[in-house]
Amino acid sequence: MRILVAEDDRRIADSLGTALSSAGFAAEYARDGEDAWFRGDTEAFDAVILDLGLPTLDGLTILKRWRRAGRNVPVLILTARGQWNERVEGIESGADDYVVKPFRMEEVVARVRAIVRRAAGFASSQIEIGELVLDTRMRQVSRAGIPISLTPQEYRLLAFMAHQGGRVVSQLEIAEHLYTENFEGGSNAVEVLIGRLRKRLGADIIATRRGFGYILGGTDR
C-alpha cells in the first residue's frame, strides 16, 4: 500500500521511508506543504504521515483543506514535544492519530498499520477472509492453517485487496496504490502479479469481474 511521507527533514523522511518499505509499504515523499497538499488532493494514498511544521503551508492547514474537500485518507500527524495544543487541534481537525518527536520508527509503522486497518473496518491485525488469514503485524499469510510464503510485492497486493472490504478494485486502482510514481513496469504488471498470487494462494481466491477488476474472496460482500 502507498504512503505519503510529508516531512521536510530529509533524514527523518528517509528513515521513515526505509522503515515503511521494510514493513511492506510503498513510500513517497513531499518536502513542503504545498506539494503535500497537492499530492494528497490529487493522488491515491492509503495513509499520510504529516508533519505539522512543514514550510510553505503548515500541516494543520493541509489537513483542514483535505477534510473540507472530502479527502478521507487516514492521517498520522507528527508534532514536536510539548505542542499539546497542536495535537488537540490536529485530532479535532480530522487526524486519525499522532506521534510526538522524537519517536521510534517501529511505533510510527505500528500506528500507520493501525489507522489503515481501522479505516478498512478491522479491529485486529489479523484479517480473515474465508480460509485466508493475513497477519498485518507479522506480515504472515496462511490458508486453511497452512503458511504461505509471498514476495514483498505479492504481499503488498494481497494486503491492499484485503483492506478493501470485499469490493471490486480495478487494475488502475491497484497500480495507483501498489507502485510508487517512479514505477517503470509494463502495462500488464498488475495482471502478472494477480496471476502469481493466484498460483500461491489458489486460483479461486481472487475472482475477475470482467470490465471492472478483481475481488478478493470471490464474492461481493
UniProtKB/TrEMBL annotation:
Gene3D superfamilies reported in the protein's UniProt record:
3.40.50.2300, 6.10.250.690, Winged helix-like DNA-binding domain superfamily/Winged helix DNA-binding domain
Which keywords, in A-to-Z order, does the entry hold?
Answer: DNA-binding, Phosphoprotein, Transcription, Transcription regulation, Two-component regulatory system
**Record's GO cellular component terms:** cytosol; protein-DNA complex
Among CDD domains, the record links this protein to: REC_OmpR_EcPhoP-like, trans_reg_C
Record PTM 4-aspartylphosphate, positions in chain: D51
UniProt GO BP: regulation of DNA-templated transcription
Q: Which residues form the Response regulatory domain?
A: 2-116
Molecular function via GO? phosphorelay response regulator activity; transcription cis-regulatory region binding
List the stretches of this chain annotated as a DNA-binding region. Answer: 124-218
Residues of the OmpR/PhoB-type domain: 124-218
> What is the protein name stated in its UniProt record?
DNA-binding response OmpR family regulator
**Native organism:** Rhizobium tropici
